[in-house]
Structures are given as structure tokens and as C-alpha cells.
Amino acid sequence: MAHSVRRTFAALLLLGVAAAVLASLGAWQLRRADERRAVLAAIEAGRAQPPLALTPSTPAAELTPWRPAQASGQWLDQYSVLLDNRNQEGRPGYWLATPLLLDPPDRSAVLVLRGWLPRGAPGAPPPTPPAVPAGTDTVVGELAARVPRLFELWSPGDSSRGQLPATLPVAGGVVPQVQNLELLAYAQATGLALLPAVLMQSGGGDALVRDWPQPSVDYNQNQGYALQWFSFAAIAAIAWLAVAWRALRRRSSPAH
After folding, report:
1. What's an example GO cellular component term for this entry (predicted)?
2. Quick check: helix, strand or coil at residue 151?
3. Is the CB of residue 162 less than 8 Å from the CB of residue 77?
4. Angle, CA 88 vertex, CA 83 and CA 89 arms, to 5°
5. Coil, strand, or helix at residue 45?
6. Which terminus of the chain is more exposed, N or C, with fewer CB under 10 A?
7. How far apart are the C-alpha atoms of 96 and 24, rounded to whole Å?
8. Is the pTM here over 0.90, yes or no?
9. Helices and strands per DSSP (H, E), number in the chain
10. End-to-end alpha-carbon separation of the chain, Å?
11. Hey, where are the domains in the chain?
12. Which residues neighbour 75 within 8 Å (Cβ) at sequence distance 6 or greater?
């Protein structure tokens, strides 16, 4: 009899824990759905705004992510940087970032993500970025709050690999390769007064690919997962009730 009670108690405990954990997973998926819905709303709100002409005096409040924007100025090709490990449809490659000088006297500029170019064969040197137009050029695209980050792996063999040089440009005309690029560090290395936003270029007459990644906004998927977790939690709860009901019936039944 005592063995049966212990087994019943253990079953009720496990089923109760399972129901609670499964229900919490369902609630977590609903929160993820809300987060993705908020991201989608922010993207749609940004893209619905009128195009913004970037100038050195553009207020930071106007630099809304995903807002259409354009800038006119001179390319500072000597400050170009390659962002490594950016894939495009499964192909490894780089993003090319180059500042566009908006006002020469105060060295104000906006950092432009110009596009993607493929990596060469293993052991091959990095690709040569396409030349920028001479003189004043107009660039159109969408704004981003920062350069999208990539998970960084620490390399014990070369601690400087993937890091931004302290000063740009690099001697010899070498285009630095970095994993991630922070605007503050880039501004310090170049001496430029950068706008607190990045322009993701959407058009151009070169061979760069400009298919920029967008955050996942499929909240319906999370809602489907939530429904599954809640269903499993309901099954565990029903099983808990069934075990408890049988245990009560056994206790209330007269002994034979």
C-alpha cells in the first residue's frame, strides 16, 4: 500500500511539473510572437515615413530605422572596411562599408553599407572592392541604427584578427577586415563626425549585391508553437487529474 502511494505521489509530482514547464514554454512563445509583431510594426512604420535627405544637421530623432533616406556627398574610399563572414544565399562573403562625406569643412559623414561581394577560393586574397564614383554622388537606401552585428569567435592564434585598426586608412591601401563595426570606434579611427545611423544602400551601378537581411517577423510560427506547448500542458494536466481521481477512488473504496 505504501509503495502504491509513493508511486502515485511521484506520478502526480512529475505530471504537475511537466504541465507547469510546458505551459511556461507556451507563454514564452507568445512573448516571442509579441516581440516579432512589434519588430514588424517598427519596420512598417519606418518604411511608411517620407524619404529623409541626410545632412550634418539631421536630428537624431529623424533617423528612424528602416526609413527611406538619401545622402549626397563624396565617397571616402580610403576608409572602406570589409565586414567578414556575411553570407548571401549560403555563399560566404563580405559587406563593404564606406563613408560618404556630407560636409568637408567639419568632416561630417554617414557610413554606407554599399553591398555584398563574394569571398574568393580558400587562400585567395580578399576581393577588390569596386571603385566609387568620382565627385559628388547621391546614395539612396534605408536607415539602420547600427551595423548589424555578427557573433564573434575568439581566435587564440591571432588576437588582432577581425579587429578595427586604431587609425584609418591603413598603410599600403589595405582594406581592413573586421567581424563587427561599431560607429563610435570607427569615428575615432577615421576622425569623422558620423551621423548616429547607417545607410543601407539599395541601388547602384556596380556588381554589389544589395539584399539586406531583415529580422524574422513570422509571429504566426511562434503562435503555432505556443498552441502546441499549451496542448501538451493540457494533456499533462488531464493526466494529473486522472491519476488523482483514481487515487481518491482507491482511498474511498472499502477494503476487501
Report:
1. plasma membrane
2. coil
3. no
4. 160
5. helix
6. C
7. 43
8. no
9. 3, 8
10. 13
11. 1-43+218-252, 51-120+135-148+165-201
12. 98, 99, 100, 101, 132, 133, 137
Grid coordinates representing 62 are: 529623424
CA geometry: angle 104, 105, 109, nearest 5 deg: 45
Place of cell 519606418: 46
What count of Cα atoms within 13 Å lies in the side-chain half-sphere of residue 20? 6
The string of pLDDT tens digits covering residues 122-134 is: 777 888 889 898 8
C-alpha cell at 222: 511562434
Handedness of CA 133, 136, 140, 145 (dihedral sign): positive
Q: Which three cell numbers stand for residue 135?
A: 565627385
* pLDDT tens digits in sequence order for the chain, 256 residues long: 555 778 888 999 999 999 999 999 999 999 999 999 999 999 999 999 999 999 999 999 999 999 999 999 999 999 999 999 999 988 999 999 999 999 999 999 999 999 999 998 777 788 888 989 889 999 999 999 999 987 654 444 444 456 899 999 988 888 999 999 999 999 999 999 999 999 999 988 788 999 998 888 899 999 999 999 999 999 999 999 999 998 888 877 665 4
Cα 50 from Cα 53, distance rounded (Å): 10
Angle of CA points 188, 192, 198, to nearest 5°: 95
Range list of β-strands (E), 21-145: 52-53, 68-75, 81-83, 93-103, 108-118, 136-144
Cell triple for residue 103?
Answer: 560636409
Q: Are strands 136-144 and 81-83 parallel, antiparallel or unpaired?
A: unpaired
